[in-house]
């Protein structure tokens, strides 16, 4: 099973530099056409079976990752306690193991990382700070929020995304380990996210960053948090991010959209899991209509320019589309891109999945343009 998070850095295996979260290998029938040594290149993985019923358009590399994830035999997340769910294997584990089995070499990181604990209301949270090895700064600054439905995952699971942003944008990235539910109910994660943003602004100079060039990025639940940070910054009259990148964000509470219906049984995210996440984070279902959860109900005026990335085979696909339309209606400049044949969580899989490589490059270009 996957090791518990916040393990010592010395315990993280070499491949975790790019993908993180080590696990033991498991035999697979997946084969490869070639091997690579460039962390942003891909190799063609061939899945063992036919496309799943829930995702007939899935790309072969994406399917190979899902097959590997299925091979671990974990119980469905929605049948577990939060503590046990956090022990399940992750898509990151599947990518890590496939890379090992196919002799895909991960080069040395182009960033240095340090950990930092900061005070928040009622406790502390941990930050991981990525600093480019090249250059001397001041660098742009990105505050990054990981996914996991506000309940699971950690900085290791989403290391690939944070590191890719730091390397490809040549920016300082502050990755935020906000407190998780059900131990910490709504709106704890949202408040932690904003406190981390405030800390990043106040400490930008010490981080070798330019506080005038700050952006927020988040995946899934983290996409929701990133957007909320922009809203809170506007409302509290502190420095707005110059840009926000929202990657398959949770943007509303309606689980009857077309993408929820079409991909109800999808992996690694499905409708039942989303219901489980909601139950764990919220105290009552009335909170699901709160604008912090249902961003489509929020006041979106005056927010920064926005990039929204969606995956085709994802219950949250329509959340991103609806949010993009709401932002545009509020007069916000929005660039959206959908990646076909891939599922939720694809963004950090650039080592194996070509669409992830493309999405990371696109996000980096959007951020670099905003930082000019």
UniProtKB/TrEMBL annotation:
<dbReference type="InterPro" id="IPR050300">
    <property type="entry name" value="GDXG_lipolytic_enzyme"/>
</dbReference>
<dbReference type="Pfam" id="PF07859">
    <property type="entry name" value="Abhydrolase_3"/>
</dbReference>
<dbReference type="InterPro" id="IPR013094">
    <property type="entry name" value="AB_hydrolase_3"/>
</dbReference>
<dbReference type="InterPro" id="IPR029058">
    <property type="entry name" value="AB_hydrolase_fold"/>
</dbReference>
<dbReference type="GO" id="GO:0016787">
    <property type="term" value="F:hydrolase activity"/>
</dbReference>
<feature type="domain" description="Alpha/beta hydrolase fold-3">
    <location>
        <begin position="142"/>
        <end position="347"/>
    </location>
</feature>
<keyword id="KW-0732">Signal</keyword>
<protein>
    <submittedName>
        <fullName>Lipase</fullName>
    </submittedName>
</protein>
<feature type="signal peptide">
    <location>
        <begin position="1"/>
        <end position="20"/>
    </location>
</feature>
<keyword id="KW-0378">Hydrolase</keyword>
């Amino acid at each position: 099973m996957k090791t518990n998070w916040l393990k010592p850095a010395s315990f993280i295996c070499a491949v975790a530099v790019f993908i993180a979260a080590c696990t033991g290998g498991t035999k697979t029938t997946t084969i490869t056409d070639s091997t690579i040594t460039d962390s942003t290149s891909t190799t063609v993985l061939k899945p063992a079976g036919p496309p799943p019923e829930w995702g007939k358009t899935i790309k072969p590399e994406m399917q190979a990752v899902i097959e590997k994830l299925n091979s671990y035999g974990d119980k469905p997340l929605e049948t577990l306690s939060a503590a046990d769910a956090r022990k399940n294997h992750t898509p990151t584990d599947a990518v890590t193991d496939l890379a090992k089995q196919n002799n895909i070499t991960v080069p040395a990181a182009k960033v240095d990382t340090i950990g930092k604990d900061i005070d928040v209301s009622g406790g502390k949270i941990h930050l991981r700070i990525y600093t480019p090895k090249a250059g001397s700064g001041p660098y742009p600054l990105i505050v990054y929020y990981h996914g996991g439905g506000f309940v699971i995952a950690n900085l290791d699971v989403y290391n690939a995304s944070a590191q890719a942003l730091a390397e490809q944008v040549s920016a300082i990235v502050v990755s935020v380990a906000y407190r998780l539910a059900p131990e910490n109910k709504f709106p704890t994660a949202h408040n932690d996210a904003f406190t981390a943003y405030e800390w990043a602004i106040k400490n930008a100079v010490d981080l070798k960053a330019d506080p005038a060039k700050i952006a927020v990025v988040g995946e899934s639940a983290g996409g929701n948090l990133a957007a909320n940070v922009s809203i809170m910054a506007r409302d509290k009259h502190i420095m707005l991010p110059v840009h926000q990148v929202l990657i398959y964000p949770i943007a509303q509470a309606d689980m009857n959209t077309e993408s929820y219906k079409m991909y109800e049984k999808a992996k690694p995210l499905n409708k039942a899991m989303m219901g489980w996440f909601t139950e764990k984070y919220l105290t009552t279902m009335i909170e699901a209509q709160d604008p912090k959860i249902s961003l489509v109900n929020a006041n979106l005026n005056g927010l920064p320019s926005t990039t929204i990335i969606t995956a085709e085979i994802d219950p949250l696909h329509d959340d991103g589309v609806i949010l993009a339309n709401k932002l545009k209606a509020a007069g916000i400049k929005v660039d959206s891109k959908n990646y076909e044949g891939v599922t939720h969580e694809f963004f950090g899989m650039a080592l194996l999945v070509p669409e992830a490589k493309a999405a990371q490059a696109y996000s980096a270009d959007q951020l670099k343009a905003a930082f000019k």
